Every structure is written in C-alpha cells, then in structure tokens.
Amino acid sequence: MHTKSARETGFAERLRDRGRNWHEAARHTDYLDALLGGELSRAGYAGLVAQHYQLYSLLEEASARMRTDPIAGRFVFDELSRTAALEADLRHLHGPQWRDHLEPTPATVRYLDRIREVCFDWPGGFIAHHYTRYLGDLSGGRIVGRRLAEVYGIDGDGARFYAFDLIPKPPVFKAAYRELLDDTGWDDEEQDRVIEESLLAYQLNTDMLVDLAAVYLPRIPSPANTEDVA
C-alpha cells in the first residue's frame, strides 16, 4: 500500500491529522464533559471565560503585530476577533468589576508565556496557535455555544464568544483557511516545526482545562481517605 510522503500530503491535512488525537483529548476532559453535561456552576463556566479572555487578548495583540508579515498577515481576520465578545460575556457574568475575576490558572500562565515567546516574531508559531484556537472555535466551539443555551439558559449575553456573526458560513471559511495553510510555501522542516508547536498548543489548552476541573468540579474522596462505617 502506498503511503503519502509529507511532500505529497498537503500541509493543512498533515496539521489536522497530527492534531486529531490531541483535539479529541481536550474535548473529553472532565471539565468539558461537566460543562456540556450541565454539571458546572455559573462560576465554573465563568472561570473558562476568564481564561479565554486572557489568551485571546494576547493572541490578538500578536495578530496586530503580525498583520504586516507576508505570511502570517494572511491569517489575520478581523471577523475572528474574540476579545470584545469575551469582555461582554465577562461583564454579563460578573458585572462592572469583571476585571477582578481574571486570575489565571498555573496552566494558563504557561500558555500565555508560550504565546509571548513564539507568536510575536515567528510567523509559524503565530499560525500554529492561531489555527489551534480559532478553527477549533469554528467547529467544537459552536457546539459548546448551543449547549450553553440548552442546558444553562445562557444565550446571547454571556455566550457571545461562541457567536461568529461575521462568518455566516464557517465551513467555507475553514476551507479557505486551509488553502492558505497549503500556500505558505514552507519546506518540510518548517512545516514540522509548526505542527509540533500546534501540538504543544493543544497540550497547553488541555492542561488549562485540567486546572479548571481541579478548581470547579466536586472532589470525590479516594477510598484511602474514606472512613469505614461499621
């Protein structure tokens, strides 16, 4: 059976295939299972919004920096911007003092540090994190938005992050985005670097969700810590 080489396989396909398992792992963390199952408190959901605000604010600062780059600039789409939506969501959830609720988890701090390290002067690093976040939002994120409305009654205010009003046809947008990935002109070595960075982005996101679970999900005592009842 003939197996495609890296050169025969488009970069977008390689990027998607390599990240598939990580994407699935993030979708099935305890935190997201609880969120989609209606088991989180309002504070538990707001904790995710606060982490997202910090990540997207920084990533969109990087977008402003990379806008004039001949490669990375092609991926800067104003219609993807999430910062204003996240501000509105936090204001709805916490009121005018919403900035007092932006404590990052330890994993979020590591995530932010990595964005600062690679997204402001390396086009490949910027695109790796941009792809991992925004194309995920246009896919699984829309499912989360629907569940917020169905299970928590959070629709519109509080969930604007998940509404891409300026992208009426996400599948068309994602297809065009993947064409841009295939048109970067990177050699195999640079493609591999970008793929590895995207896998790190998935790991950092998963670690953040694990942190949120530790804060907001009920703890079940282990058998060793449970007293026997005679």
TrEMBL record:
GO terms for molecular function: heme binding; heme oxygenase (decyclizing) activity; metal ion binding. Its EC number is 1.14.14.18. It is an enzyme of class 1 (oxidoreductase). The keyword Cell cycle does not apply. The keyword Metal-binding applies. One of its GO terms (biological process) is heme oxidation. InterPro entries: Haem_Oase, Haem_Oase-like, Haem_Oase-like_multi-hlx. Keywords: Heme, Iron, Metal-binding, Oxidoreductase. Gene3D superfamilies: Heme oxygenase-like (1.20.910.10). SUPFAM superfamilies: Heme oxygenase-like. Heme b binds at R16, H23, Y131, R178. PANTHER family: HEME OXYGENASE (PTHR10720). This is Heme oxygenase.
